[in-house]
C-alpha cells in the first residue's frame, strides 16, 4: 500500500472529514497513476457527473427526509412517540429501542440508503431514548446500527438490482431475503430487550385505554410513513416525490396542526437540515469518485483472483473467500456500486460452485449491512459521528456489540443455507412438477436452485439431474434426436462430420434441382405423354448447374 494511503487513514482516525479522506484518496490515486495520460484530477468527476449519480433520486430524497427528521426532532414529536411506544411496548423491557429498530428497518427499505435512516429516524429517536434512561453508549450504537437494517425487505431497490443482474424473479428474491432480514432484526431486538432489563428502564403496566389515547395523540406523525408507503406501493409517486409529499405534510402538521414550530424556527431547522444533507451528499460524491478509481484499477477483481490463485477449489472455500471479499468491498463502495461492479464478476464463480442464487443474494446484502457499521471505514459510522457530534473513535467503540450480533446472524446464514431458500422450496417443487407433466427438463427449477452463468442456457444443479440430462442440460435434445422423424420431412437427417455434412448438403441440393426439373416437365407435358417436348432454356440452365455441381464435388 502506498504511504499516502496510510497517512490518510491515520488522519481519518484523528477526525479528518470523510469527504476529504475519500476525495484525497481519489485525487492522489489518479495523480499517482502508472499511465501518464491518466494523471489528471478530472478523472474523479467521471462517475459523479454520470446519470447514475447526478440524476439519482437519492440526491433529492436525502435533503427532504433530513428536513422531515429535523422538523420532528425540533417539535414535540419525540415526546408523543415516547408516550405511544411506552403505552404499546412499555410493559416490555427495551420497548422504545425495539421501536427504533423496526422504524429504521422500514425507512431503510424505502430509501435503500441507511445514511438517510440515521438522520431521519436516529435523529428523531436519539433524544427520546436518552430521556427514557438508555445509556449514551447503547443509544449511539443502536441508532448507528439500526440504520443498516432493511436492505433485505420489500421494496428494497438493492434486491431489485440483484434479481436483475442474477436473472432471477424479483418476487421470489423478496420471499427468500425476508427470513434472514427478520433474523437480524430479532437478534437486535433481543439485545434491546436484554439492555432494557439490565439498565432497569422503567416499565409501565399495560393500559388499553392509554394505548388508544396515545396512538390518537400521535396519529398525524404515524401518517407520515404511511403516506410514503402508499405513494410507493400504489405507484402514484416515486421515491423522491414521496419524500417531498412527506416533507410538505410534516411541515403543515407541525406548524398548523400541533403548532409546535413557528416559521422562524422552521427557517433555522431548514438551514441545519440542508447543512447536514449537503455534507452527506458531498461524502457520497467523493465515495463515487473513489469508486471510479477502484473500477479502473480492477481492485475487486485483483482481490478475488488472489484467493483463487491459492487453491480455492471447493464450495465452502469459495463461500468463505466470498464473504471476506464482500465485506472488504462493502467498506470501499456504496451498496449500488458494489452490486454493479462485483456481482457480474461473482456470477461465473458462483455458478461454477453451484451456489444457490438466493443464498448468494443474502450473503451479499448482509455483508454490505455489516460493512456499513464496521470500523474503521464503515460509511454509517462517519454519518453518525457528524449527525450526533461525537468523535469517530467513540462511535467505533459503541457499535462493536451490534457488529458482533450482525456477524452472528451472517454466520447462521452461511452455515444454514436453507435459511435463504426454504421459502422457495414450493416454487421449485411446482416447477419440477410442471416440467415432469410436460416431459421436458426442469429448467425453471434449475434457475431457482443454483446460480446460472447464462440464463439463456440453463444447466442442472444436482447429481441426479446431471446424470439424467447431462452436465450441459442438453440430454433431452439428444433423446429427441434419436426419435424417428415424422413422415413428410423434406430435409433428411445429416450424418456427423464435416465430409458427411458436405456430401449430404450436395445430395440435398441435387435432389431439390431434380425435383424442380421434374416439376417443370410435368407441368409442361402435352396431352400426349409420348409427344416430344420443346426445349426449355431454363431446364437447360438448371441441368448445366447440376452437372457442374457434380463435377466440382
From TrEMBL:
Membrane as UniProt keyword: yes
Keyword list, A-Z: Cell inner membrane, Cell membrane, Membrane, Transmembrane, Transmembrane helix
Compositionally biased region (Basic and acidic residues): 504-513, 540-553
Transmembrane segments: 7-33, 53-73, 85-106, 112-129, 141-165, 177-197, 218-237, 273-295, 315-332, 361-383, 395-416
Biased composition (Low complexity): 521-535
Superkingdom in the source lineage: Bacteria
Molecular-function GO terms, alphabetical: transmembrane transporter activity
Chain positions covered by the region annotation Disordered: 481-553
Main location: membrane
Domain named TRAP C4-dicarboxylate transport system permease DctM subunit: residues: 5-418
This protein's GO CC annotations: plasma membrane
Pfam families xref list: DctM
Subcellular location: Cell inner membrane
InterPro entries for this protein: DctM (IPR010656), TRAP_DctM (IPR004681)
Presence of the UniProt keyword Chaperone in the record: no
NCBIfam families: dctM (TIGR00786)
Protein name, entry field: TRAP transporter large permease subunit
Annotated organism of origin: Polyangium fumosum
Amino acid at each position: 500500500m502506498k504511504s499516502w494511503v496510510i497517512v490518510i487513514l491515520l488522519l481519518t482516525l484523528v477526525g479528518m472529514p470523510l469527504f476529504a479522506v475519500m476525495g484525497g484518496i481519489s485525487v492522489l490515486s489518479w495523480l499517482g497513476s502508472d499511465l501518464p495520460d491518466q494523471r489528471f484530477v478530472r478523472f474523479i468527476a467521471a462517475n459523479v457527473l454520470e446519470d447514475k449519480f447526478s440524476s439519482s433520486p437519492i440526491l433529492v430524497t436525502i435533503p427532504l427526509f433530513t428536513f422531515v427528521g429535523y422538523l420532528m426532532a425540533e417539535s414535540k414529536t419525540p415526546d408523543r412517540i415516547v408516550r405511544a411506544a411506552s403505552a404499546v411496548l412499555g410493559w416490555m423491557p427495551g420497548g422504545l429501542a425495539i421501536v427504533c429498530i423496526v422504524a429504521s428497518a422500514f425507512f431503510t427499505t424505502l430509501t435503500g440508503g441507511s445514511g438517510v435512516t440515521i438522520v431521519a429516524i436516529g435523529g428523531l429517536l436519539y433524544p427520546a431514548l436518552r430521556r427514557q434512561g438508555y445509556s449514551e453508549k447503547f443509544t449511539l450504537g443502536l441508532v448507528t446500527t439500526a440504520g443498516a437494517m432493511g436492505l433485505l425487505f420489500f421494496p428494497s431497490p438493492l434486491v431489485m438490482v440483484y434479481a436483475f443482474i442474477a436473472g432471477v424473479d424479483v418476487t421470489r428474491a423478496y420471499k427468500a431475503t425476508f427470513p434472514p432480514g427478520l433474523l437480524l432484526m430479532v437478534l437486535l431486538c433481543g439485545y434491546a430487550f436484554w439492555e432494557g432489563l439490565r439498565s432497569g428502564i422503567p416499565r409501565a403496566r399495560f393500559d388499553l385505554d392509554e394505548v388508544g389515547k396515545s396512538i390518537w395523540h400521535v396519529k398525524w406523525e404515524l401518517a407520515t410513513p404511511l403516506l410514503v408507503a402508499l405513494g410507493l406501493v400504489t405507484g402514484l409517486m416515486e421515491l423522491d416525490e414521496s419524500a417531498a409529499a412527506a416533507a410538505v405534510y410534516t411541515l403543515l402538521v407541525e406548524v398548523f396542526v400541533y403548532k409546535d414550530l413557528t416559521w422562524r424556527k422552521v427557517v433555522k431547522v431548514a438551514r441545519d437540515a440542508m447543512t447536514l444533507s449537503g455534507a452527506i451528499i458531498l461524502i457520497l460524491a467523493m465515495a463515487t469518485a473513489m469508486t471510479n478509481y477502484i473500477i479502473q484499477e480492477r481492485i475487486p477483481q485483483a482481490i478475488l483472483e488472489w484467493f483463487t490463485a491459492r487453491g480455492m477449489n471447493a464450495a465452502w472455500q469459495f463461500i468463505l473467500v466470498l464473504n471476506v471479499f464482500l465485506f472488504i468491498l462493502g467498506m470501499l463502495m456504496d451498496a449500488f456500486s458494489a452490486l454493479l461492479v462485483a456481482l457480474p464478476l461473482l456470477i461465473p464463480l458462483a455458478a461454477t460452485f453451484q451456489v444457490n442464487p438466493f443464498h448468494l443474494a443474502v450473503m451479499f446484502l448482509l455483508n454490505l449491512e455489516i460493512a456499513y457499521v464496521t470500523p474503521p471505514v464503515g460509511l454509517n459510522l462517519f454519518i453518525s459521528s457528524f449527525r450526533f457530534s461525537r468523535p469517530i473513535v467513540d462511535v467505533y467503540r459503541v457499535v462493536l456489540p451490534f457488529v458482533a450480533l450482525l456477524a452472528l446472524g451472517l454466520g447462521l446464514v452461511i452455515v444454514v443455507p436453507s435459511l435463504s431458500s426454504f421459502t422457495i422450496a414450493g416454487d421449485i417443487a411446482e416447477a419440477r412438477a410442471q416440467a415432469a407433466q410436460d416431459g421436458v427438463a426442469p429448467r425453471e427449477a434449475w434457475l431457482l436452485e443454483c446460480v446460472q452463468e447464462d440464463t439463456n442456457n440453463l444447466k442442472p444443479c444436482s447429481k441426479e439431474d446431471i446424470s439424467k440430462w447431462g452436465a450441459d442440460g442438453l440430454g433431452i435434445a439428444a433423446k429427441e434426436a434419436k426419435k424417428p422423424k415424422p413422415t413428410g420431412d423434406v430435409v433428411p437427417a445429416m450424418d456427423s462430420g464435416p465430409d458427411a455434412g458436405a456430401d449430404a448438403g450436395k445430395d440435398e441440393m441435387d435432389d431439390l434441382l431434380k425435383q424442380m426439373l421434374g416439376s417443370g416437365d410435368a407441368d409442361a407435358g402435352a396431352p400426349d405423354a409420348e409427344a416430344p417436348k420443346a426445349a426449355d432454356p431454363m431446364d437447360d440452365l438448371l441441368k448445366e448447374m447440376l452437372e457442374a455441381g457434380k463435377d466440382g464435388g
